[in-house]
Design brief:
Elements: H1 9-12, E1 15-18, E2 25-26, E3 29-30, H2 34-43, E4 47-52, H3 59-68, E5 78-80, H4 81-92, E6 98-102, H5 105-113, E7 117-119, E8 128-131, H6 139-150, E9 154-157, E10 163-166, E11 169-172, H7 174-185, E12 190-191, H8 198-207, E13 212-216, H9 219-229, E14 233-236, H10 243-247, E15 257-259, E16 273-275, E17 278-281, E18 284-289, E19 292-295, H11 301-317
Parallel strand pairs: 1-4, 1-13, 4-5, 6-7, 6-8, 8-9, 9-12, 13-14, 14-15
Antiparallel strand pairs: 2-3, 10-11, 16-17, 17-18, 18-19
Keywords: Hydrolase
Pfam families: Hydrolase_6 (PF13344), Hydrolase_like (PF13242)
GO molecular function: phosphatase activity
């Protein structure tokens, strides 16, 4: 169920693990209220680490972009899927081993920094292939990865996101490119990115935090990773997954808090409570009757989404199948 806090989230939690695209920015554009929300959260004592499934960019590049958007950030406040993939390699491959890297500069840097010898050809006999997204990857690089894996190399993917948000819409992501290699080899790769919990746990360990909060816009990756890691998650409605998606989310992807945007870090959060079969919060109320969600006509905004989540999640967890068609867009 949704959680409640009497303190603003920025004061209740000591570290925010913040997703990038859809939370802090969209493409090259700032997301409204993101800079002010994160800056004020810092003033209240909350530390920030930006955690991204993007493996192609260097932490310095990410930090520079955030700083240019009014979110002052240092490179050590960025955790990329490339760094997580390199850490995962260390658990399976001896230091100094040859690794075929299929990806961008960020992945090359991370694998080299982890102490491995980077190669570019299957004939160099790599013991592992690590694959991350880069817009320049083509058939030749994917073929080399397939050849090496067919010869017994371990396959590690930085992430398995099928799509990638761009200014023009959604494009094929790293998971789509990994899928081409999997189709050729039949080998399922290890994955370092969200929703696997590795990146979150590495970021928390590196920061020394004791009470982290995950912030994301995608239920299947950001919030799924939070659940897998055992951390509470704030779902902001500025990116991919909608309020309706949250209502219909499986237990493995449900957030602990909902907010329209990052101003939600600066507020206490009340959880809905049950009253005579209705889940209520301020003027909003919802219930499930005969497998259909009913919303009180006064229900508006994020509170409507919160009571709808409470009602549907309770019903679903109790074994009731809720008709998705009964869940409206909610307009948040």
């Amino acid at each position: 169920m949704l959680l409640s806090t009497t303190l603003p989230l920025a004061e209740a939690y000591d570290l925010a693990l913040v997703d990038l695209d859809g939370v802090a920015y969209k493409g090259h554009d700032p997301i409204p209220h993101a800079a002010d929300g994160l800056t004020d959260a810092r003033r209240r004592g909350m530390r920030l680490v930006f955690v991204t499934n993007n493996a192609s960019r260097e932490p310095e590049s990410v930090a520079d972009q955030l700083t240019g958007l009014g979110i002052a950030t240092s490179p050590d406040e960025v955790m990329t899927a490339a760094q997580a993939a390199a850490a995962l390699l260390r658990h399976h491959v001896e230091p100094g081993a040859r690794v075929l890297v299929v990806g961008g500069a960020g992945l090359l840097t991370a694998v080299t920094a982890a102490g491995f010898e980077v190669v570019a050809c299957a004939d160099d006999e790599p013991v592992a292939v690590v694959q991350g997204f880069a817009p320049t990857i083509g058939w030749r690089e994917l073929a080399e990865a397939a050849y090496a894996i067919e010869r017994g190399a371990l396959h590690v993917a930085s992430n398995l996101d099928l799509s990638l948000p761009t200014e023009r819409g959604f494009a094929p992501g790293n998971g789509s490119l990994v899928g081409a290699v999997v189709a050729a080899t039949g080998v399922t790769p290890l994955s370092a990115g969200k929703p696997q919990p590795d990146m979150y746990r590495l970021a928390v360990e590196r920061s020394g935090a004791s009470n982290p909060l995950v912030i994301g816009d995608r239920l299947d990756t950001d919030l799924g990773g939070a659940v897998a890691a055992g951390y509470p998650g704030l779902h902001v409605l500025t990116g991919v997954s909608s309020a309706r998606d949250a209502v219909l989310a499986p237990a493995t992807e449900r957030p602990s808090f909902l907010a329209a945007d990052l101003r939600g870090l600066l507020e206490p959060h009340d959880a809905p409570h049950e009253e005579q079969g209705w889940w209520a919060l301020r003027g909003a109320a919802a219930r499930v009757v005969d497998g259909r969600l009913e919303l009180d006509e006064r229900s508006r905004g994020v509170d409507a989404a919160r009571v709808a989540c409470a009602a549907v999640w309770r019903a679903t967890d109790g074994g009731t199948l809720v008709d998705p068609a009964s869940v409206p867009d909610l307009g948040v």
